[in-house]
Amino acid sequence: MSRWRKKPGPRTWIVLAVVVAAVIAGVRIVDSHRIGPAPHADHPRCDKVLSRAPETIPGMSRDWTIGDAVASWGDRAAVLRCGAEELPPNINLCLTVDGVDWVLDEKRLQADGVSVLRTYGRSPAVEFTYTGSRSEVGGLLAALNPAVDWIPQKRRCVGLQDAA
After folding, report:
1. Which of 11, 13, 99, 163 is spaced 20 to 30 A from 65 at the CA atom?
2. Over the stretch 12-50, which tens digit does the pLDDT of each residue have?
3. How many CA atoms, within 13 angstroms, populate the side-chain half-sphere of residue 64?
4. Beta bridge partners of 70
């Protein structure tokens, strides 16, 4: 005796296509909010850094993100990652914004126009990446200051006038 199976009709294929499309869209949406963590994102102080990160920075609202010790604003135009590698003394440009030293990754800026700055002399180090205009960076760092200024500073940037 043979068993008869009903062939799937057009309605079944349409429902299946809608379900597959919804799953793919869901995965893409979730993946678009994923930001890779810094190497030491599990540092105990990173929880406090993220809890103190503001909901808004000049011109941007905080995004929903997936990742350890990360925050972003403006659809990932600005990204903060806690637990970055601490910088050794170097000759890159250092900006001191309201008492927090930030060192600019000049090679990255020249290579692709992205401003990547990392706190200097604090543990854990905090990295800030911004893809917008360089003229806006100072105001953005000032807005982020409460998230990092409480971390004890062990070393400070020095300029040529300090080295003499």
Report:
1. 99
2. 667 666 665 555 544 444 444 457 888 999 999 999 999
3. 4
4. 81
